[in-house]
Amino acid sequence: MTTAKPVIVVGSLNVDLVVVAERFVTPGETMLGKSFRVVSGGKGANQAAASARLGYPTQLFGRVGDDGFGSRLIGDLEAAGVDVSGVGSVPGSTGTALITTVASGENSIVIVPGANGTIGPNDIDGWWPTIHEAGIVLAQLEIPMDAVEHLAKLCAEASIPFMLDPAPAQGLSAALLSKVAWLTPNESEVLALTGRDLIGAEEPALLKVAGHFLDLGVDGVVLKLGARGAYVATAKEQRWVRPFVVEAVDTTAAGDAFNGAFAASLLRLHDPFRAAQVAAAAAALSTTVPGAIPSMPSLQQVEALLEV
Predict the structure, then answer these.
(1) Nearest Cα residue to 220 out of 230, 235, 239, 209
(2) How large a percentage of the chain has pLDDT more than 90?
(3) How far is CA 38 from the centre of its chain?
(4) Average of pLDDT values for 124-149?
(5) What burial class does residue 245 get, using C-beta atoms within 10 Å of its C-beta: 0-12 exposed, 13-18 middle, 19+ buried?
(6) From the centroid of its chain, how far is CA 290?
(7) What angle do CA 130, 136, 137 make, to 5 degrees?
(8) Beta strands, E only, 52-203
(9) Which of 44, 90, 99, 39 lies closest to 67 in space, CA to CA?
């Protein structure tokens, strides 16, 4: 590795309760599903696992409940190579995601924050002596906004790159965006943030949206476009990173695979466009395996796809 500084993720840990069905139900309808499984996930956990699976030193800070799911999550993260010494337990439920996956590979998700909702600015302060050693810090919006905003402030003051995945989609303040080194919205999140629909959009529209965020003080933007790849933009250069074609069975956590791989690859390669290619390969591979944390590919798998 070119640096000893780790990827540090501050975010959610969820247990995913996954139903596989032929199609999404309509309101008031009861339908027989095909299967059910319990899978470890949560955006914070997923992104940490994605980074660690690429062999990069990765630590996660977050919370689980005392309901029995927490130990399962921690065990799965340790198996992926994540340092979980920053994950604490509190009374109550672990964060839960109710996921329906349909035959096309698409999914719908309802999240109950549970222990994730207990994280606040004081926790960030308590974790800061370790977070301060990060090469890059990742956060998402499955923990309370005041914690995210405080984390961004501390990172900006310490000149530590702060990557924000603005998911679940919601509005963000200009003050927060001005402290973000890398913003990584997907199409639905761009719509929530700007009112612009990027479904099928070509490069001029992508450049305009990226420019909007750059003008607000974001250092770099990655527009995650699903099967169309990603559009990466800095003030100096913009480039469309094309997707890798795979046979998708479950798109759950593909965006998280991208973020974790992008962060680790930024620290390893020091080139956002090459890092985005690695991340695109990791995201594609994650869709070929059901579930969240279990779908995060290894470095060897990613390198093999990059050589195709």
Answers:
(1) 235
(2) 85
(3) 20
(4) 98
(5) exposed
(6) 17
(7) 65
(8) 58-65, 83-90, 95-101, 107-112, 136-139, 162-164, 182-183
(9) 90
Omega before 272 within 30 of 0, i.e. cis: no
Using one digit for the tens of pLDDT, what is the confidence trace for 145-192?
A: 999 999 999 999 999 999 999 999 999 999 999 999 999 999 999 999
Q: Which of 16, 197, 256, 271 is catalytic?
A: 256
Domain ranges in the chain? Answer: 7-307
pLDDT at 105: 77
Instruction: Collect all residues with Cβ–Cβ distance below 8 Å to 233 and sequence separation of at least 6.
Output: 206, 207, 210, 211, 214, 220, 221, 222, 223, 239
What's the whole-number mean pLDDT along residues 257-274?
97
**Inter-residue contact 209 to 194 (CB < 8 Å):** yes
Asked if 256 is an active-site residue, the reply is: yes
Q: What angle do CA 88, 142, 177 make, to 5 degrees?
A: 115
Distance CA 270, CA 257 (A): 19
pLDDT band at 291 (very low <50, low <70, confident <90, very high): confident
CATH topology assigned to domain 7-307: UDP-N-acetylmuramoyl-L-alanine:D-glutamate ligase (3.40.1190)
